[in-house]
Amino acid sequence: MEKPISTKQYFSSMQFAFKMALQTMFVEKDKLETECKGKRDKFIEWLPQFKTNLIDYPEFVEDRYINGRILATLGILYRDENIDNETRVKLLEIINYFKAKKRIAEIDRCKVSYQKCLKLNHKQYLHIIKTFYTKVQEYLLQGYGYVYDNRIGWICFNRNLYRQRESNVLDYAKTKANKKRLIEQGVHLWNKAEEDWAKANGLPYNGVDYRIFRKPEAIYELPLLDCTLPNAYILKFKKVNYRPAQYAGITNEQLLKQTGGDVNEIYKLNIDLKTKLSLCLEADKLLYTKFIRNENQESVKHRTPSSKSRQ
Question: Which has the closest alpha carbon to 228: 155, 304, 303, 152?
């Protein structure tokens, strides 16, 4: 399988994984059913010596797992110190039988879910993924953490007070507007490669720097925490900034006005997490308090995060 790099490849990867899982489960189910075959009649002969009404339990009558009640009762009988070893061996065999029935029931439930997933088309798959991650964004913006599987760790917003050792932050919206204005005026814009060449050749350079920087009170980072994978320190959460066609040319101020400054409406927007954070911080002036993770409001690059994670 090619490493997924697009939604279509993720979709194909999902289908492949579920098909393989179904095949594995079908093999496992056949094996379990073969092992269980014919044992129930033997158990009917044994049950009277246990002095219980196990034979009347719905799970025994219907010969399938329902709610685990019969396993709970069997467990109590098995732990009775007064029974002999022969009886204990028989109980263990019945317990394993109903554990197999439980696993068969789990496989049947998974089979239904997996088959539903395999019936999805690409558009339906994207809708589900979008709905899921929109909710993940909402939880992150409420100050909670999102936990990944398989030792990857978890992420949350961390408020980091701006310090002089950190560089100024580029204001993308104002920079874009300023660049457009200067181009319309016919101004020669600054270019780093041109400036370096001019300096190297001892020539003056008059390109106008169109960039506009800001010094925010705080920077909000989204670090990957508690990752236990090899070389975890080099792993970082890579954010994707996107703004679909429906929001093309619309500024953050306009989006804020469209949502009425309601964070619940901002959560629903089909835009990137960074933009949502900016809008929510503007809409709720006390929201920043949910992202303070340590007393000095430091970056996790400089210290170990405290347990104040809001997971």
Answer: 152
